[in-house]
Each structure stands twice: as C-alpha cells, then as structure tokens.
Amino acid sequence: MSSMSEELLDKKLPKTMRTYKITKDDTNLIEIAKEVISKNHIENNLISCGVGSALITSKGKIYKGVNIHSKTSGPTSICAETSAIAQMVSDGERKIKTIVALWVDGKKWDVLPPCGACRHIISQFGDPWVIISKTKKTKLSDLYPLPAK
After folding, report:
1. What is the reported pTM?
2. Which domains, and CATH codes, for the chain?
3. Which residue numbers in the chain have pLDDT < 70?
4. Do 1 and 50 touch, CB atoms closer than 8 A?
C-alpha cells in the first residue's frame, strides 16, 4: 500500500468537501488502530491482515478490528472497518461517533479513507466523523452523500 501525502489528498478532495483538523481524541483513536494492527499483523501465502481500524461510539466505547484479506478468494475478504463494526454490533451498540482505518508497515503507516462498501456499511450506523488522513477528518455524509437507507 502506498502513502498518500496531505498535498495529494488535498488535490483529490472535491472543493466542496468540508474537512476539519483532527483532535486529540482522534489522535488517540489513530494510536489504537495502529496498535491493533501492529499486534495482529499477518502475512503468509493464504491471508494478509495489514489494516487496522478503531471506532468510538456515541456512548464512548471503543471497538477495534483488522482486515482479513484472503489471497485465495477475494470476495471472502473483509475490511478492518467492517470487523470493528461487527464487534460494536455484537456488543449491542448502534451509533458510531468517529472511525479510522490505517495500514502499518514497520515504522511507516498511513490513514486509509474507507472504500465504497465500507462507506455504505458505516452509513447504516449514523453520520460519523471519518478520519481521512493523518491531520484531517470529515463527516461521512461528505464522503458518501446519498446512502441507501
């Protein structure tokens, strides 16, 4: 996975998208996502787990997840955000306040904006903040303006 510089991200974002600086709480959520994937990274000839996610609910509970990429059957893979959301739902929570996903490779890491499928799944649990870079966040409704509900 390649890192996207802040400058390149700014060029790719629509001019109408509102972005905000991340807060100390957002930075803490990033650190939790880095920790979960650093401790649970897997790379072999069958699967790869290289992305971690963390979310905080409207009630303040934190949930973590990792992706599981099947190298033998792409459709059976799951994203880290979906993994964290499944943990949240399993615990009876239903509203996401903020979510982040990132990849780690040794000391290098970067935030990954959610894919289209994840944006749809996230939209079923509110209009949370989505951390889209090391310094910026936006509301899901700016990333995914017309979700199917």
Report:
1. 0.89
2. 20-143 (3.40.140.10)
3. 1-15
4. yes
